[in-house]
Specification:
mainly alpha, 4 helices, about 100 residues, elongated
Length: about 100
């Protein structure tokens, strides 16, 4: 490392913080893999192609979807979206809170 370079912020982490990072990684993978599966299944069943999050009435009519199929898709999509919104706030708070508490 260059002798002229000094870091303005030094953070020391204990070895136990690795467990925190492992939990954070597991939570991220849960959100990215497990929560996507129901959405992908519903997309296949309904024919709603990405990047459409919520289909318009015209798209619903064009695909010939009934209310139940639309409701199932919406439930899966909304559950995934809620998880994404929650995780984006929770994850940084989780990492900082554990760092401050430790």
């Amino acid at each position: 490392m260059d002798a002229a370079f000094t870091s303005p912020l030094m953070i020391e982490l204990s070895a136990e913080y690795g467990y925190v990072l492992a939990v954070a990684l597991a939570m991220f993978l849960l959100q990215q893999i497990v929560m996507v599966i129901p959405v992908a299944r519903q997309r296949i069943k309904t024919g709603i192609a990405p990047p459409t999050l919520y289909p318009r009435d015209s798209q619903i009519k064009a695909l010939g979807l009934d209310e139940r199929k639309v409701a199932n898709y919406m439930c899966a999509q909304r559950a995934h979206q809620n998880n994404v919104e929650f995780t984006s706030v929770f994850m940084p708070l989780f990492l900082v809170a554990v760092r401050c508490a430790g």
